[in-house]
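TL;DR need structure tokens for one chain.
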Amino acid sequence: MECQSVIPDRAVTACALGAIIIVGAIISAQYFLAGTVPQPFSELAVLGPNGKIGNYTSSVAAGQNFTLDLYVGNHEGQVTYYRVYVKLGNISSVVDRNVSLSAPPIAVYDVFLKDNQNVVHPMTFQIGRVGAEQKLVFELWTFSPVKDAFAYAHSWNQIILNVTGSSQL
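>> reply
TL;DR here they are.
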């Protein structure tokens, strides 16, 4: 009896080799990416009635208190020190992802959050300046220990308000 070697079909060999490479790549990726945050981000929202985004008041009386809730969430993969500046501008005031509003803050809120933690903080305001289409702007800033300073986090929200009545402040 002669011994004959069995030569597997090339297609079967190629498929088996491909499967081994794919499984190896998946296992390697899991090993090297474990414990990392794939896309770190922070959340900033202004909550209206019932703790939901939207349905904000559009008209307030000058000098009268009104309340909104501030929501900040941390998904940065580390403890983060946040500062939210609240500023008042008009309809033509520029604020966007790259430029913070060039106005002094009317309120400041600081919070430390662990990764995957969030906070809802009630804010009470009075606006003394009567006028239509005023922007109440909320800017998210983060503290950099390396720079020992806060930096604009490119995240902001705004509410457009009509402030009515006479300013008696």
